[in-house]
Design a protein that fits this description.
Blueprint lengths: L2 H28 L2 E2 L1 H25 L6 H35 L7 H10 L4 H9 L2 H27 L3 H22 L7 H4 L13 H6 L5 E2 L13 H12 L6 H18 L5 H26 L13
Parallel strand pairs: 1-2
Helix pairs in contact: 1-3, 2-3, 3-6, 3-7, 6-10, 6-11, 7-10, 7-12, 10-11, 10-12
Length: 315
């Protein structure tokens, strides 16, 4: 990993530990706690990634006669190093999200519904229409769930095609995006459209049931293994869809497919994620801003212009 990238990587870990410190202090003050089995599993998974990182570091130092082979292992190592910090930050960020929910600010749900109405959008009508078309419901459900799969597939693609700097940029985008949406949602909390409109089909209101429980103080114990996404405004799924496609921009034949899949994922957030149209539109704006800021400010300062050109653009 180039010196400038190592500095950015170190900064990512510093930010993660800073948020962890905030989590610990805040949790101690309000009696918030983590269920032990979830913590144990999280630690085990993190340790597993660290072990893989160590093995890859050793392999990447082997003096292979084939230079391409040596470079391949170095790119795989870089991808796993960034994956490790992102996985760790994800858990720390989830706790921060739940802590913010406990602040119990007045709900902004009606403001978002009013904004939707001003645009001529009525969420229940769209939901019922999608439900009346099983093939469309299945396609949108698949696209929505692809978000989690892409978190694992994208680093593999970028490692194999030697575009690991693009993956590093994506991880920074992920961290900035997650922090941004949580901070925005702090003074503007909103219950999911599933909850507001009383939708109790499978994988609807049950996926955001923690919102009311932690908001009202009925529980203060979180199982990290069963954590839910509780931020409605803006939509993190929408932001990540933009970042996913952008991360694959230098992988020639995969990029068009990434655009199509993530465009469908953005549409799916309305009915599969229980988001209001205001959530999605704000997510599009926030996503564009995050990509621009990370690229033009954070990443440009960390990596000289000459190094920002991918070493290989392959299919």
């Amino acid at each position: 990993m180039p010196k400038q990238m190592r500095a950015l990587y170190g900064a990512a870990w510093q930010f993660t530990f800073l948020m962890l410190l905030i989590d610990c202090i805040w949790a101690a003050r309000i009696g918030f706690r983590l269920e032990r089995s979830g913590v144990a599993l999280t630690i085990a998974l993190t340790c597993g990634l660290v072990v893989i990182d160590a093995v890859l570091w050793i392999v990447s130092r082997v003096p292979f006669k084939n230079v391409d082979r040596s470079m391949f292992y170095r790119h795989v190592l870089d991808a796993f190093l960034w994956l490790t910090v992102m996985a760790t930050f994800s858990k720390v960020g989830v706790v921060f999200q739940y802590l913010c929910v406990t602040t119990n600010f007045p709900l902004a749900t009606h403001a978002f519904i009013a904004a939707d109405a001003a645009l001529g959008f009525h969420w229940p009508d769209l939901y019922r229409w999608v439900q009346a078309h099983p093939w469309l419901h299945t396609a949108l459900a698949w696209a929505y769930k692809s978000g989690a799969c892409q978190l694992l597939v994208i680093p593999a693609i970028l490692a194999v095609t030697r575009n690991t700097q693009d993956y590093a940029e994506f991880v920074v985008q992920f961290m900035v995006s997650a922090t941004l949406v949580i901070l925005i949602s702090l003074p503007f909390p909103a219950e999911s459209a599933f909850v507001h409109f009383g939708i109790h089909d499978p994988n609807t209101a049950s996926t955001v049931s923690d919102f009311a429980l932690f908001r009202n103080g009925h529980t203060r114990e979180l199982n990290l293994s069963l954590a839910q996404g509780l931020v409605s405004f803006p939509s993190l799924h929408t932001i990540l869809a933009l970042c996913y496609a952008y991360a694959l921009r230098h992988v020639r034949y995969v990029f068009p497919m990434a655009i199509a899949l993530n465009a469908l994922m953005i549409v799916s957030t309305l009915t599969q994620g229980g988001h209001y149209l205001a959530d999605v539109l704000s997510g599009l704006v926030a996503g564009a801003v995050v990509i621009c800021v990370v690229r033009r400010v954070v990443f440009r300062l960390a990596v000289p212009a000459a190094e920002q050109i991918p070493s290989a653009v392959t299919s």
